[in-house]
Amino acid sequence: MKWLNRCIWLAAWGVWIACGFGLYRGLPRELGPALYKLSLRPNEKVRGFLHGSPSIITREYGPAAGHAVFRRRNAANGDIELEVQGDGFDPRNWAYDVSIRHGLAIGHDQLPSVSNDVVGFAIQRAKQSGDVRVIDLRSGERCLFKGIGCLTGVHETRPWGLFCKYVDDGERVIILDLRTGSRILETKTPNSTVADGWLPHFIGGHHFGVFITSKDGSDLQIRSIATGNVVMMYDQRESSHPIGSSLGDIAWYERKKEVTGGLFVQRLATGEQSLVHKPPPHSWGLRKGAFFSEDGRTILSCSTGALIDLATNKPLWEGTGNDWSYTGYEKATSSLEPDRFFVEEKWQIRYESWSEFVKTYAVRSMKDGTLVFRTWDSMARDANEDYLLAYAKDGVRVHRLPPPVDWRLLTICQTVLATPLVLLWSLLKWRRRRAARRHARASADSHV
């Protein structure tokens, strides 16, 4: 009996220790004290962490200057490493994009305002030069490529830009190497819908999409980057914008009146199409986004709230009614952490008629959905590619990751969990001592 009691107590304290490890990992954390504060000028904004380099890219623009100024700052202390004057990057006349993944600033013609005047739109397009200015934010080198067109997207892994150019026989799509200026692809787009605001765009690493007009509205041609050939026609009216993976798969949300709809994936290598996840019964919107992992083996469905393994079409993680997922990156343009995603969690604390909601934000792995850490504040799009640094929402304070553990909260939780065990142990010990005293008095009385 003695050894049985000891084993029970060891098991109880073992559970307490296991809960401590779980709380260490799962309790919300603060970002902690800032490593430093960026000394930004009034019109200077942080664009993000430079991929493959311990640097932060900022952009400053003032109406009086008439051009943008790009700065590369040391991510460890915020010091300026490189400052480049973006001559010609005047947002009043030009559009410009910054690719943090490739370390490039791209200036190009702005598309005219969309209107019903198709002829006027074409006349304005014909007057544009189509020149493209590129600045390498790592070295400061500049390039000028003439007659290319308007930028509509940047490739997620290669330094390629997708441009649409108006010529006499209609719109053309050009894929340009932004470092060398070589044209990867140039193809004509029949019945283009650029005038209606539907722009060509990259779909994953192997395809791009072109909208074309039809008698029923607009359809999307999915074409191969390698050949320019159409590999799939896509009905845009009942579906969301498709996305692509590094393996060449394509995914989209679909909702038709005669079917429930959900998240579909088509594997272009085999032509197989499958419904990988259905929305929950209470869900209506299916256009909140879906995102492939970097290796293309899993997909995060934000609308249906699940991370799905594409090998088995089974969810690795599913959200509940109190949390919903959203991505921590925008491929090739924003956060460079494609192997994690963010979940906004809503917890309700209720006591009789009183209730209060508390929000936390979980960071989970795109590989299997496991929890990495949890914070009190949202951190979407604010971390570097190695997930070692993050800047706060104000874009000024830089913090180190992962956030430090909240030892005070952990101590309080462990104390609460240990209290019943300590009280039970104290009660049992008091009962044993009382029984021993009674036994001693009984023995003494018997001798008398």
Polypeptide structure, described:
- The protein is of the alpha+beta class and 448 residues long.
- It contains three helices and 32 strands.
- Strands 1-30-29-28-27 form a five-stranded mixed β-sheet, with no helix packed on it.
- The longest helix has 41 residues, at 407-447.
- It is elongated and about 120 Å long.
- It starts with a helix and ends with a helix.
- 31% of the residues are buried.
The CA-CA distance between the termini, in Å, is: 33 Å
Per CATH, the class of the domain at 93-237 reads Mainly Beta
Number of helices: 3
Query: Which sequence of strands runs across the widest sheet?
Result: 1-30-29-28-27
Question: Can you tell me the CATH architecture of the domain at 93-237?
Answer: 7 Propeller
What is the number of E strands? 32
What percentage of residues falls in helices of 4 or more residues? Answer: 10-25%
CATH topology of the domain at 93-237: Methylamine Dehydrogenase, Chain H
User: Poorly predicted ranges (pLDDT <50, ≥5 residues)?
Assistant: 282-287, 322-336
